[in-house]
Amino acid sequence: MLDIEDKLMKKPISLAGAFSAALLVLSSCAPLPHNPNETYILVTTNIKVPYWQSALAGLRQAASELRVKVDMVGPDTYDTKAEHDEFQRAVARKPSGILVSAADAAVMAPDINSAIQSGIPVLTLDSDAPDSKRLLFVGTDNYNAGTLGGQLVSKLLNGKGNVVIFTMPGQGNLNARLHGYQNVFEAHPGIKVADVVDIKGDPTVAFDKAKDLINSKAKVDAFVCLEAIACPEVGEVVSRQNMGGKVAIVAMDADQRTITLIQKGVISATIAQKPFTMAYFGTKLVDELHHHPPSSLTENFAQNSFSPLPTFVDTGTFIVDKDSVGSFVQQTQSHGGGQ
After folding, report:
1. 201-220 per-residue burial string, b: 16 or more CB within 10 A, e: under 16
2. Are residues 239 and 215 in the same domain?
3. How many angstroms separate the CA atoms of 269 and 325, rounded?
4. Burial class for 326, CB neighbours closer than 10 Å (0-12, 13-18, 19+)
5. Does residue 2 lie within any of the structural domains?
6. Are residues 223 and 199 located together in one domain of the fold?
7. pLDDT tens-digit profile of 255-273?
8. Residues 163, 264: one domain?
9. 211 within domain boundaries
10. What is the pTM of this model?
11. If DSSP codes are grouped into helix, strand and coil, which group holds residue 74?
């Protein structure tokens, strides 16, 4: 009798086990939500700088969640022709989608249009090419970033002083930041822009110019950098001249050298962007467009009131200064890196 009861009790257990095994087989045969060979490529310049390494971390995080492949390509220096060549090589790989930071919008627009025409969804990231057929732009509202910086400089100078600005005039996002600064300064007639310096993608230009100005005893009350690579060099000059705290410096982005100089009181503050967020969210968006494309990639969505796509996704900016740098460092360390 006990043997019969044992057999009866074991039977449903074996059936349950068989059912579980069947589910396992079915689930193993079910298609994955993404093809593991899907590849999304980010094309930019200066790919070794901390800013783009932070973006690469965002790219890889999105890839891990989506279970797809990603790659970041581009020259190690600011070279618009080399970026154009890398973009063309990326297109030849027939990826599922491309994200591009258009260092020179006029150079990149034909490439973007050609990729879109061939059926590859393309988003601009960080630096836009608004006259191209890119589907949307993911990045900073650069005019607002400039006004944020302009208000900060105005406060640091108490509305009066001479300002030198370092930029690269060929890049649309930097021009928008400059416009934001200039508009704020117009409301403060005591603030004068003494010079706008084209660093041409070379940080040593910023170092040499700052050194020349300080050595010549020129009246400079603030240095402003509209991109990441200039102000660490400017800060180095100011630090060597023991002028930390005597001249205001407002940087852009939050690489380690910039953060260290803020901690030392040499750089007053920086306007931090979110390159990790840009690449992470941008990859999710271009993946969605690959799997659920609009009826036509070549449609002018910007002038369609029923467009399924926004024109612009603002990933935001914020100020890092002596009061907030500690919490910023803690946050960065908890994520295993920085900008």
Report:
1. bbbebbbebbbebbeeeeeb
2. yes
3. 9
4. exposed
5. no
6. yes
7. 999 999 999 999 999 999 9
8. yes
9. yes
10. 0.82
11. coil
